[in-house]
Specification:
The complex is a heterotrimer. Chain A is an alpha/beta fold. Helix content of chain A is about 35%, strand content about 30%. Chain A is built from nine helices and twelve strands. The radius of gyration of chain A is 18 Å and the shape is globular. Chain B is α/β, with parallel strands linked by helices. Chain B has ten helices and eight strands. In chain B, the strands form two sheets. In chain B, strands 2-1-3-4 form a four-stranded parallel β-sheet, sandwiched between helices. Chain B has a four-stranded parallel β-sheet with strand order 6-5-7-8, with helices on both faces. In chain B, helix 5 runs antiparallel to helix 6. Classes of the chains: A alpha/beta, B alpha/beta, C mainly alpha. Chains in contact: A-C, B-C.
Chain lengths: ~260, ~280, ~325
């Protein structure tokens, strides 16, 4: 599913957070939205997922404006993973993952065989099968993050939007998660993540969008966006780019005056 | 002979002249009543111009037996300041309520008469006498009592040994129990108060079920079913009450006649006695 | 692979079936308890009259009102994501009582009987909207309790004012009826008056299962799962106002049922807000019917109002709940 924004303006609590943003993400690509705190990454992601009404411009999914989509149809194709990993009740991991099947279930229907299969696959993809009967609120941050990611996967979406999905995860699980996201992308989905970790972005993403103060500063392949000049201008850091054993690394070397 | 007669006449004249003004000077001229029951007795014993104020309840037709007569009399809300403003020479009060006000007035040197309210017919006589003496109208009081006694004596005699039961059913399921004026009226009319027959009565509330299971010979309703809009009066509008009234004798006797021990309670006794006579006649 | 975990998820049918059976038993028991016992040896039609006009309305109201209170408690907790929410604590019952008292004392209900439940549900809706506005979307448990306290205090103060101003000689006693609730001596006409509204409210609330399940993940995730949040809020407000409003109009305020029942049943429902809805509906009916039965059994020795009984059970429970979640309440 192709996702685009044209001239997007979004207002939060009276403040213009996104100013005339143009954005496009293609199927089979893992697109990263990066930028400093307050740049508008989360806001852009939420607007693309249809969770915020823009004050200017439009968001299109598969060429159609979002407000033209049926809510349920959109939910079947688009999964959104929020940054705050909140689960309000002592639900088991399996119950949480099962929530991802809601858009596919007609009202009042229970769990079907298809649903059960999707849940099982999602649990195993995120390596949380062994955690299935345990309450999520008793889990560590990383385990909870993986369970919630599994929920999004259970939705079997054409597009997956994730806000800081790997923050707080240990290096092994960070790698595993991003490897999985990249694989999802190459299987044909549109995957968009907002994240802070520049090295992860460099390593796994096909496309990077760099934001600063509500505007898109640069968009394109990682090597075109992650340049010393761009990073200095946006992050005010002196960065060094390198490749170690074929893996790209971005090192924030020092603060700029 | 003539001189003796003149002397006696003269003495009599002096006696009358001495006593009469004394009587007139003694009788209070600005009387305040702080209680519904004393209000009603006062209004019937003294002319209007001697009443300084009564309570707002005296003219309220739901609780007063003489609302018309009390209509244009000034009202006091009962606070000590309000009472003192009227500068009364006599204050009548009941045994309940306004205790603080009464104490205050007494300490300030005002004449306060507490009128007892015994829950028996004999208490009515005592109350009338107390008020009549306090306001200086003993003759009028005696006349009221005489009328009261005459009417009681004129009630239809009991023809049989039958003692039909009656229940006075009120808002919220309350019934008048024994040791109440209502109970005394029932007894005087020849009824047995059925309230004592319901073993499960506590604080005088009867569940509707018991009323249906063991209905009284006479159901007395002290308010009309639609008189009070309150949710509390829902029990009076319950369908089973209508059924009971269809199947048994019932009578509506407004509350205002039994709230206070005034001679008006005889109106109630007369009506009840007439119903009792009817029940006896049907039984024979 | 038949997953091993499938056995730890609650079987909805067993839970709801079991609760339904208990509710039916409680209903039948309620019909059999009363000062006249089973009514043997009563002359003529007296027994039938008692059952049809006195016991039946009481049992039906006990079940419907209990169901409304339990269900609305579960719905409020699910929607507000707050385990301390409950119609009486949140001020909805107080608003309903105020609406009812005003329609009675303005003479409206005497003219048109239907205005009584309508006035009550309007009062309930206003109270509910006020609390939601005060507590805000992101209000935590403390904010909600404070908002509910403010609204219910104001409502009960206005009820008292209305009764005083109406120059009703029974004002104080009637205050007790509204604040402590009563199922005694209710009549079939009252059941016909309130039942349609309660059933409508119950139906609306039962439709919220999916939305409440999705809301476990927060509002954004729920929206992305296809839930219309604005419509959900409307249904919560309307359903609560209809069911709790009509219930309060005929029985006065009965509190804590909506707090205790969802908590007791939550573990059995796997903590799923959706399943908790029908479970709490049945559980609420059971609780109120049993409380009313207990009330009638102790009547000969002490006079107790049903709201007092539920408060005697509920207030200590509420304190325990607050202590248990104390860490989450720290600002």
């Amino acid at each position: 599913m192709r996702v685009e924004a044209r001239g997007l303006g979004v207002d939060l609590k009276g403040r213009l957070v996104l100013k005339g943003v143009d954005f496009a993400a293609q199927p089979s690509e893992l697109t990263a939205i990066i930028g400093p705190n307050g740049a508008g990454k989360s806001t852009l992601l939420r607007a693309l997922a249809g969770l915020l009404a823009p004050v200017a411009g439009t968001v299109l999914a598969d060429g159609r404006p979002l407000d033209g989509w049926d809510r349920q149809a959109l939910a079947r194709r688009l999964a959104y993973l929020p940054q705050d990993r909140v689960v309000h009740w002592a639900l088991t991991a399996r119950a949480v993952v099962a929530l991802g099947r809601l858009p596919h279930q007609p009202p009042g229907a229970g769990e079907s065989a298809t649903d059960a299969r999707a849940i099982t696959q999602a649990l195993s993809a995120m390596d949380v099968t062994h955690l299935a009967p345990r309450p999520v609120i008793e889990m560590s941050g990383g385990e909870r993050a993986r369970v919630l990611a599994a929920r999004a996967l259970a939705q079997e979406p054409a597009a997956l939007f994730a806000d800081e999905p790997a923050s707080g995860l240990d290096p092994a699980h960070q790698l595993a998660l991003f490897e999985h996201l990249a694989r999802l992308a190459t299987e044909g989905r549109t995957v968009i993540v907002a994240l802070h970790d520049l090295s992860l972005a460099a390593r796994f993403c096909h496309r990077i969008v760099l934001m600063h103060e509500g505007n898109v500063v640069a968009a394109g392949a990682p090597e075109d966006v992650l340049t010393v000049e761009h990073l200095a201008a946006v992050y005010r850091i002196d960065a060094k780019l390198a490749t170690i054993d074929g893996v790209p690394v971005v090192l924030p070397r020092a603060l700029l005056p | 002979m003539l001189r003796r007669s003149l002397a006696i006449l003269g003495l009599l004249a002096v006696a009358v002249l001495c006593v009469a003004p004394a009587r007139a000077a003694d009788a209070p001229r600005r009387i305040v009543s702080l209680d519904l029951c004393t209000d009603q007795l006062l209004v019937e014993l003294v002319p209007r111009d001697r009443i300084a104020a009564v309570t707002h309840l005296a003219a309220d037709p739901t609780v007063s037996a003489i609302p018309e007569q009390a209509r244009d009399i000034p009202i006091t809300r009962g606070g000590a300041e309000d009472v003192l403003r009227l500068d009364p020479d006599l204050i009548l009060a009941g045994p309940f309520g306004v205790r603080g006000t009464v104490d205050l007035l007494q300490r300030l040197g005002r004449r306060v008469v507490i009128v007892p309210q015994h829950q028996q017919l004999s208490g009515v006589r005592e109350a009338v006498q107390t008020v009549a003496e306090a306001v200086g109208e003993p003759a009028r009081g005696a006349a009221l009592i005489a009328d009261f006694d005459r009417r009681l004596a004129a009630l239809p005699r009991r023809q049989t040994g039958l003692e039909p039961t009656a229940i006075i059913y009120q808002i919220g399921g309350s019934v008048s129990g024994s040791h109440s004026l209502a109970d005394a009226a029932l007894a005087a009319a020849g009824f047995r108060n059925g309230a004592t027959g319901y073993r499960l009565t506590r604080g005088g509330q009867v569940p509707l079920e018991l009323l249906v299971a063991d209905p009284p010979d006479l159901l007395v309703l002290s308010s009309a079913p639609n008189e009070y809009r309150t949710a509390l009066a829902d029990n009076l509008r319950h369908p089973v009450i209508a059924t009971l009234r269809r199947e048994h004798a019932s009578i509506g006797l407004p509350w205002r006649y039994w709230l206070c021990g005034t001679p008006h309670i005889v109106d109630v006794v007369e009506k009840l006695a007439a119903v009792r006579a009817g029940i006896e006649a049907r039984a024979r | 692979m038949k997953a091993a975990w499938a056995n730890t998820e609650p079987n909805a049918r067993t839970l709801l079936g079991g609760l339904a059976v208990v509710a039916l038993l409680a209903f039948i028991l309620s019909l059999a308890i009363g000062p006249v016992g089973l009514g043997r040896g009563l002359p003529g039609e007296a027994g039938a009259l008692i059952f049809r006009e006195i016991r039946l309305p009481r049992a039906v109201l006990g079940a419907l009102v209990g169901a409304s209170l339990g269900l609305s408690g579960a719905a409020l907790q699910g929607y507000l994501r707050n385990p301390l929410a409950e119609p009486s604590l949140v001020g909805v019952s107080g608003g309903a009582a105020l609406g009812a008292v005003l329609t009675i004392h303005l003479g409206l209900s005497a003219a048109v009987a239907l205005t009584l439940p309508l006035g009550a549900l309007l009062g309930a809706a206003v109270a509910m909207l006020a609390v939601v506005a005060l507590a805000g979307k992101h209000g935590g448990p403390v904010t909600l309790i404070l908002a509910g306290l403010a609204v219910s205090s104001l409502a009960t103060a206005l009820v008292s004012l209305a009764l005083n101003v109406s120059q009703n000689p029974f004002a104080m006693v009637e205050m007790v009826f509204w604040l402590m609730g009563s199922l005694a001596d209710r009549s079939l006409p009252q059941v016909w008056l309130a039942a349609p509204f309660m059933l409508a409210g119950i139906a609306l609330l039962l439709l919220l299962g999916r939305a409440l399940d999705a809301l476990s993940l927060g509002e954004d995730a729920a929206r992305s799962l296809g839930i219309d949040i604005a419509r959900t809020r409307t249904m919560v407000v309307a359903g609560t106002a209809l069911s709790v409003g009509a219930a309060t109009a005929v029985t006065g305020i009965i509190g804590f049922v909506g707090l205790i029942v969802p908590h007791a049943l939550r573990p059995l429902a796997g903590h799923r807000p959706g399943l908790l809805l029908p479970a709490s509906m049945l559980g609420g009916a059971i609780m109120l019917l049993l409380a009313d039965i207990a009330l009638r059994l102790v009547q000969p020795w002490v006079e107790l109002r049903i709201g007092v009984l539920t408060a005697l059970l509920g207030a200590p429970f509420f304190v325990w709940l607050v202590l248990k979640t104390r860490s989450e309440l720290a600002p």
